[in-house]
Amino acid sequence: MIRISRRITLGTGTVFGLGCMIASLVTLLCLIFTEDVYALFHEGGPVEGMSAAFWFAAALWLTVHFVRNSQWRMWHAVVLLCAAGMRELDWDKAFTQEGVLQLRLYSGDAPLVQKAIGAAIVVLILVAGMRLLIRDLPGFLRRLPLMRADEWLVVLVVSLLFVAKTIDGLGRKLAPFGIEVTEWVSGFAGHAEESMELFAAILILQVVALHVGRKAPR
C-alpha cells in the first residue's frame, strides 16, 4: 500500500483532483438553483450527466492519444469507454422501442432498422469486450504485483461499478425474497449508486492520464 501511495503523487493525481473539483462545483451550482437535493441523483440528473461526461472525456483523450501514436489496435478501449458513457445517459434505450441490450427488441415487432442497428451495437461491444479480455487481461494480471497505480485504480473502478450495479434497484431485487426495503433505504441506495458511478468515471479519467503520461516521450 505504501508503494501505491508513492506512485499517486501531485503530478499523477492532478486529473483526479480536477475531476473532483469540477464535480463539487457543478453540485454546488445545482444546489443554488434547486431546493430538491434528491433531484441531483434522479435519472438524467446532474450526477448522472457528469458521470457520462467523464466517460466521454476519457474516451476522447484516449482516442487522441491513439491517433497521435498510431495505436489503432487499442480501439476496443475507446469503444467500451463510449459505451459506458452512453449507458449512463440511457442512450441504449433512448432511440429504439426497447433497449438494444434487451431481447424484446429483436423478438418483438420493432422496425427492422432498429433491430439491425441494435444488433450491430451489441456485436461491436461484444467484440471490444472479447479483445479486452483476450488481449489485455493477461498483461494486466501480470502487472498487478508491480503495485502500479494504473492497475489498482482499475480494480477499484471495477469494484465500485460492481457494488453500484448490485444496489441499483435494491427494493426490486430483494422483493422476490420477501424482503421489504423502506423508502429511505431505497433512496440511499440509489444515491450511493449514482455517487459510486461518478467516482468511478473520475478514476477512469485518471487511469487514462496515467497511461498517456507513461507512454509520452521523455
From TrEMBL:
Keywords on record: Membrane, Transmembrane, Transmembrane helix
Lineage top rank: taxon: Bacteria
Transmembrane domains' residue ranges: 12-34, 49-67, 111-134
Name of the protein described by the UniProt record: Tripartite ATP-independent transporter, DctQ component
